[in-house]
Amino acid sequence: MIAHTNISCLPICLANGPIAKLRQSEAGSTALEFALIAPVFLLMLLGIFDLGHMAYGHATLNGAVQEAARTSALETGDTEEADDRVVALMKAVLPNAEYEFSRVSYVDFNDVGRPEAWNDSNGDGLCNNDENYVDENGNGTWDKDIGEDGNGGAGDVVVYEVEVSYSPVFAVPFFASLSDRRTLSATTAVKRNQPFAAQNGYGSSAGVCAADG
Ligand SMILES: [Ca+2]
Ligand SMILES: [Ca+2]
């Protein structure tokens, strides 16, 4: 059946017809606004959760590393146990993490990161040009960092570092860089081992740098 429109009532019909009512209706506006805002809001929430999770992980890691460094500094300290303790403390926060541990020992705080003494005659900051050096750590070569790998001995100063890589629990969609595996690192600044025996100092063996470094 063909509907006939009453031309004479057209202005009134348009003003009061279903299209006009639909245009005036506010019933769907809330749903529409929600549909527009919800994705943005959820992304923001995920981002906030992700930041909070990362900050919590970093704080927990720093606390765990400090504790492990203290126990490693004792005469009875077991470095493997200390590392395992870090992993155990972190497991609840970052369950899918992987860890890298490193310990470098020095005789004193002032030695952290310094090179072995050498006569840098050409002033290039390298041990070369047949320059003389002091093989203080006795390993037969010049070292830019005098530190020795490991937990050292009695009275030594140890820099303990732990690097943790993990995949974020609250991955933010559409932002690949925020969903990538990321790394947290914590360093216990220097802890001195207990003086449970006489400390071994640095040696004074002489050496000659290679001509080409
Ligand atoms: Ca030089
Ligand atoms: Ca050396």
> Strand-residue fraction?
15-25%
DSSP summary, beta strand count: 6
Class based on secondary structure composition and strand pairing: alpha+beta
CA(first)-CA(last) distance: 99 Å
Mean pLDDT reading: 87
Provide an overview of this structure.
The protein is α+β, with helices and mostly antiparallel strands. The protein has one domain (28-208). Helices cover 35% and strands 19% of the residues. The protein has five helices and six strands; from the N terminus they run H-H-H-H-E-E-E-E-H-E-E. It has a four-stranded antiparallel β-sheet, with helices on one face. A two-stranded antiparallel ribbon has the order 2-6. Helix 3 packs antiparallel against helix 4 (79-91). The longest helix is centred in the N-terminal third of the chain and has 44 residues, at 29-72. The protein is elongated and about 115 Å long. The termini are far apart. Bound molecules: calcium ion (CA) (2 copies). One calcium ion is lined by residues 116, 135, 137, 139, 141-143.
Can you give keywords for this protein?
alpha+beta, single chain, 213 residues, two-stranded antiparallel ribbon, binds calcium ion, 6 strands, four-stranded antiparallel β-sheet
